[in-house]
């Protein structure tokens, strides 16, 4: 502010009613709780890793299928996301792997570049770009997602899981596991898919899913002390699903769940798997199309990762904050390694991370162990895991979806008022009806509207009282920290409503920025006020020729 505005610009005496300069008392937050360290909570992390593994397994395969890539590519990405990214990342609970949001980009990238090997080079470059973004501290973008949008994102992912997994639970597997788009890969939208599934119901799958859901919801009613620590409920669900299908084969062949409706891991042993690995085609390193695809992957994957990290931090029981720049570096390293050995691009994934939290994970050891389990599944257990019906895995995902999108959350957001509820609802519906990134963009637009509206309406605080000396009306206007051009109309309206004969004090002490148009409006009013017998006192409000910025 200009020096001439450091003191009141009128000799009129006034009674101020500003806030006390004494800092508020620090809120009581209870005893300090030290977040657990990796390897110190294995009794919680290992059972949780089994659940995350069971959630990730069909998603890795399904997203690879939807991307037009080899099935092994999805598993490679899940393994690298678990065993590499978790070690470098600063997140305790996030889990990385192939993301449904990248499936369309991957498929179009493979087609436009002409070969999967050329696309792998783009994945390697995407990882390098992400490491660069982390070094440039671009992760700060993640801090600008409003909490209402993040809550809408979580609720929408939960609802998507329910809507998208319901067809799998009753035996329709035409869409891949993990599909998040409103219009599926079979050209039917979500509602049409549900109706089509109902009209083509498979009773064997329905029985398996119903048993699984009964176990999962019943498990919660058992006191924690009485639950077997070594047996996560989802593991029991998939085991019983495989057993039930065996029983169907013995006593009710019409209910048998066939191979195309079960897990389909590549078989052939470690030797065959090594022979099927694909590697980047570095001969095209000078091709601008490769670099463009890599940059696109880096930007989209980074945004999805930052959204996922913010969402997982929200539901972390310890409320730990993930260092976003470090996360971009970790994701970049993961994508470079995945691309070098034939994997798909990866992000931190909300479905896996939320399953991790709900299963009681405490540290990143869970994410690492889930990657190790994926590696074990590929190398040693494909024949066993191929016995698991997709309906059993759908039951696990339905339960995760229910936990993410409870009715109580909608009631809670509604009680917070329209400025909180509408961005939440816009994000929720936007994701359901389009996809994750478009839905978040819609929610962000609505949230920004309310932020601008609030800023437009609340550029100051007004205190009105009787003047203690002469009995004249006294009005104190305390300007907020940032008074922008959008606030000009509200400031003028407030000044025009000041009664004749009043004393008005306009205090800009708290303001770090006052737009020049607002400064002009205040000084214009000061001239006009003399005609209304209004005495104007300006405190730290600069002259029109002075700087707009404050301290």
Automatic annotation (TrEMBL):
Its main location: membrane. This is Sulfate permease. The chain crosses the membrane at residues 46-72, 84-107, 119-136, 143-163, 194-219, 231-257, 288-307, 328-351, 371-400, 421-452. Residues 1-38 are annotated as: Disordered. It comes from Sandaracinus amylolyticus. Residues 42-426 form the SLC26A/SulP transporter domain. GO terms for cellular component: membrane. Keywords: Membrane, Transmembrane, Transmembrane helix. InterPro entries: SLC26A/SulP_dom (IPR011547), SLC26A/SulP_fam (IPR001902). Residues 1-23 have a biased composition (Low complexity). Pfam families: Sulfate_transp. One of its GO terms (biological process) is transmembrane transport. It is a multi-pass membrane protein. It is found in: Membrane.
């Amino acid at each position: 502010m200009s020096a001439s505005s450091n003191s009141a610009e009128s000799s009129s005496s006034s009674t101020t009613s500003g806030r006390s300069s004494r800092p508020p008392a620090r809120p009581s937050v209870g005893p300090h709780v030290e977040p657990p360290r990796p390897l110190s909570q294995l009794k919680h992390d290992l059972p949780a890793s089994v659940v995350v593994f069971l959630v990730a397994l069909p998603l890795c395969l399904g997203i690879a299928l939807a991307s037009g890539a080899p099935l092994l590519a999805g598993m490679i990405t899940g393994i690298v996301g678990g065993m590499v990214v978790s070690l470098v990342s600063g997140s305790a609970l996030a889990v990385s792997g192939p993301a449904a949001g990248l499936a369309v980009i991957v498929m179009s990238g493979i087609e436009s570049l002409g070969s999967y090997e050329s696309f792998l080079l783009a994945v390697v470059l995407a990882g390098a770009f992400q490491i660069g973004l982390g070094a440039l501290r671009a992760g700060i973008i993640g801090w600008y997602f409003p909490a209402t949008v993040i809550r809408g994102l979580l609720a929408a992912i939960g609802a998507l899981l329910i809507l998208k997994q319901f067809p799998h639970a009753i035996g329709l597997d035409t869409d891949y596991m993990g599909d998040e788009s409103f219009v599926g890969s079979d050209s039917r939208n979500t509602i049409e898919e549900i109706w089509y599934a109902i009209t083509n119901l498979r009773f064997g799958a329905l029985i398996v899913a119903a048993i699984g859901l009964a176990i999962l919801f019943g498990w919660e009613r058992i006191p924690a002390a009485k639950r077997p620590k070594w047996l996560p409920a989802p593991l029991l669900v998939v085991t019983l699903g495989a057993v039930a299908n065996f029983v169907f084969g013995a006593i009710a062949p019409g209910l048998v769940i066939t191979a195309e409706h079960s897990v389909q891991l590549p078989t052939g042993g470690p030797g065959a798997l090594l022979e099927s690995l694909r590697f980047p085609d570095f001969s095209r390193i000078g091709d601008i199309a490769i670099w463009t695809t890599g940059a696109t992957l880096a930007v989209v994957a980074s945004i999805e990762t930052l959204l996922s990290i913010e969402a997982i931090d929200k539901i972390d029981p310890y409320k730990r904050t993930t260092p976003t720049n470090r996360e971009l570096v970790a994701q970049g390293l993961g994508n470079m390694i995945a691309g070098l050995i034939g994997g798909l691009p990866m992000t931190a994934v909300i479905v896996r991370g939320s399953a991790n939290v709900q299963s009681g994970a405490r540290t990143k050891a869970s994410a690492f162990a889930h990657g190790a389990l994926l590696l074990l599944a590929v190398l040693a257990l494909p024949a066993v895991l191929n016995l698991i019906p997709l309906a059993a895995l759908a039951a696990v995902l339905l339960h995760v979806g229910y936990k993410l999108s409870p009715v109580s959350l909608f009631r809670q957001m509604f009680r917070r008022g329209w400025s909180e509820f509408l961005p939440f609802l816009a994000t929720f519906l936007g994701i359901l009806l389009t996809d994750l990134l478009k839905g978040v963009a819609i929610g962000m637009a609505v949230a920004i509207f309310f932020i601008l509206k609030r800023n437009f309406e609340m550029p100051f605080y007004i205190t009105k009282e009787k003047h203690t000396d002469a009995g004249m009306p006294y009005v104190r206007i305390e300007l907020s920290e940032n008074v922008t051009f959008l606030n000009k109309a509200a400031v003028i309206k407030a000044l025009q409503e000041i009664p004749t004969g009043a004393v008005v004090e306009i205090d800009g002490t708290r303001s770090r920025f006052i737009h020049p148009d607002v400064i002009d409006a205040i000084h214009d009013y000061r001239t006009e006020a003399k005609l209304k017998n209004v005495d104007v006192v300006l405190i730290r409000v600069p002259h029109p020729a002075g700087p707009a910025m404050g301290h």
